UniProtKB/TrEMBL annotation:
This is Cation diffusion facilitator CzcD-associated flavoprotein CzcO. The keyword Oxidoreductase applies. GO terms for molecular function: flavin adenine dinucleotide binding; N,N-dimethylaniline monooxygenase activity; NADP binding. InterPro entries: FAD-bind_Monooxygenase_sf, FAD/NAD-bd_sf, Flavin_mOase-like. SUPFAM superfamilies: FAD/NAD(P)-binding domain. It comes from Panacagrimonas perspica. Keywords: FAD, Flavoprotein, Oxidoreductase. Coiled coil: none annotated.
Length: 505
């Protein structure tokens, strides 16, 4: 019996759908657009916020922009000739995602304020039952997580944090109502987010104390405005834009050799980064503080032309130290020095130790996915987990990138999942569940390969590695290799079941 999508549609107010998608970032929207394209309408997209956009909705701190060229960091099927800059700012990327959602008619499928608190597999019904914080429950044959790996901000649990009397907020929850003009501001963290907002707040604040535990490697940002003529050409000749996109793709892709094959090749990037800092920071003491001692690429390589110049300004102090304690009106560095501040901004990144929170995904026999992952998160092709039928992750374990556009990886997974659903329809199966041996074999190979990469061998600590030092985050190869692996849904690597309960399909 083939699934009849139209027959079981949950409709605008219904709660039972063939497919439940979680999240409206590039992953969730990309998946939904693909389903629409294939004429599949029986799905709902659960979004905890009040609008689409994922990370590009939430991260609206001053200076937020993409650090991958926008012509590549966008859907291949929705190339935008109107990007105003090489590296678009957050507002433009968010607007792009909203426009994609509108153009593809996703509005009737969106359920806002639907913060998923639990997703349980019901073996009798062969369905997922998903509950949201506001008390709603949705059921679906298939559950697709597009929750992303960087969606839950982390503020470290430092002594005295709650005693601070001034305003404090995380970069991903920027308090635009807090006027920083003339204020004494402590910024904690020097990652990809901080290097974008520090130059902006430096212009306003009376003083900025920048707490840097580990300096990042930074290379110049080849940003520029895209001229009206170029935009007209891209609009008129989409093929030209496609070629441009491909050019960027291969330029970024060439870097993978240094990341994964021979970290010694990273020396080339190090030369560029060292000359960047030399050009922009004349003070040798400050330069020494800002120069990393690990191999470039071990942590994400950052790009910026305005970060170092901001740090050379008289109102900025770089404190090359961790934070010991927060007091009512001050921050105490690890060396015991106390500095009074009015505002604390946490640029301390996201919850990445586990790709999903505990107590959310429960598979066969009620097993929490974090228990299935007690030795580290892993998924077959970053997508499927044994014991969790019909659950597909987009941006799952080992699909992150240090060198190119995540949208490319997302589209690969979207294609794989859509082929899975097609295969299920064609073969009239109700469930697909990856075979444990397929999962094992895939991850053993992946881990042996990643062990040689610069992220593991470069002498740094990063959020790419889990608490056991295992890299469960990044894809250790070229993105086209991942695309090749995910081109076809390999049902032979899965166990499948027919429908158990008639009428419940
Ligand atoms: P992040 O890269 O994880 O950086 C967090 C920073 O906080 C690090 O400097 C870290 O120091 C510091 N830190 C964490 N805990 C601390 C503590 N207890 N005491 C002192 N310092 C502490 O976070 P992020 O900057 O938000 O970026 C996260 C990821 O988001 C990036 O890697 C990137 O993938 C993505 N992102 C992308 C863009 C883009 O343009 N596409 C922009 C922003 C973010 P250590 O280095 O010592 O751990």
């Amino acid at each position: 019996m083939a699934f009849d999508f139209a027959e079981r549609s949950g409709g605008a107010s219904g709660t039972d759908f063939h497919t439940l998608i979680v999240g409206t970032g590039f992953a969730g929207l990309g998946m939904a657009i693909k389903l629409k394209e294939e004429g599949q309408d029986d799905f709902v997209i659960l979004e905890r916020a009040a609008d689409v956009g994922g990370t590009w909705r939430d991260n609206n701190y001053p200076g937020c922009a993409c650090d991958v060229q926008s012509h590549l960091y966008s859907f291949s099927f929705e190339q935008n000739p109107d990007w105003s800059r090489m590296f678009a700012k957050q507002g433009e990327i968010w607007a792009y995602l909203r426009a994609c959602s509108e153009k593809h008619g996703l509005a009737p499928h969106l359920r806002f304020g639907a913060d998923v608190t639990s997703a349980r597999w019901n073996d009798e019904l062969q369905k997922w039952s998903v509950s949201t914080r506001d008390g709603r429950t949705f059921t679906g044959r298939v559950l697709i997580s597009g929750m992303g790996g960087l969606s839950n901000p982390v503020i470290p649990d430092l002594k005295g944090k709650s005693k601070f009397k001034g305003a404090q907020f995380h970069s991903a929850q920027w308090r635009h109502d807090v006027d920083l003009s003339g204020k004494r501001v402590a910024v904690i963290g020097t990652g990809a987010s901080a290097i974008q907002f520090v130059p902006q707040i430096q212009k306003l604040a009376g003083r900025v104390d920048l707490y840097q535990r580990t300096p990042p490697w930074i290379v110049p940002k080849p940003d520029r405005a895209i001229s009206a003529i170029e935009r007209r050409l891209f609009k008129r000749f989409p093929l030209l834009q496609n070629l441009y996109r491909k050019g960027i793709y291969w330029m970024l892709e060439s870097r993978i050799l240094g990341f994964t094959v021979d970290p010694r090749l990273m020396k080339l990037f190090e030369v560029v980064a060292r000359s960047h800092i030399k050009r922009q920071v004349k003070d040798p003491v400050l330069r020494a503080k800002l120069t990393p001692d690990y191999t470039i690429g071990c942590k994400r390589i950052l790009i910026s032309d305005d970060y170092y110049p901001a740090l050379t300004q008289a109102n900025v102090e770089v404190i090359a130290d961790g934070v010991r304690e927060i007091r009512a009106n001050s921050v105490v560095a690890d060396d015991g020095t106390e500095r009074e501040v009015d505002v604390i901004i946490w640029g301390t990144g996201f919850q990445t130790a586990d790709p999903v929170p505990r107590g959310v995904f429960f598979g066969r026999n009620g097993i929490d996915i974090l228990d299935a992952w007690k030795n580290g998160a892993e998924a077959y092709k970053g997508t499927s987990v044994a014991g969790f039928p019909n659950l597909f992750f987009i941006v799952g374990p080992n699909t992150g990138l240090g060198h190119s556009s995540m949208v490319f990886m997302i589209e690969s997974q979207v294609g794989y999942i859509s082929d899975a659903l097609k295969t299920m329809r064609q073969r009239s199966v109700a469930t697909v569940e990856v075979r444990p041996e397929a999962l094992r074999e895939y991850n053993d190979r992946l881990q042996s390969r990643i062990g040689k990469a610069v992220w593991n061998t470069g002498g740094c600590q990063s959020w790419y590695l889990d608490r056991n030092g295992r890299n469960v985050t990044l894809w250790p190869g070229a993105t086209w290799q991942f695309r090749r692996q995910t081109r076809r849904f390999d049902i032979e690597r899965y166990v499948s079941e027919p429908v158990k309960v008639h009428g419940a399909a």
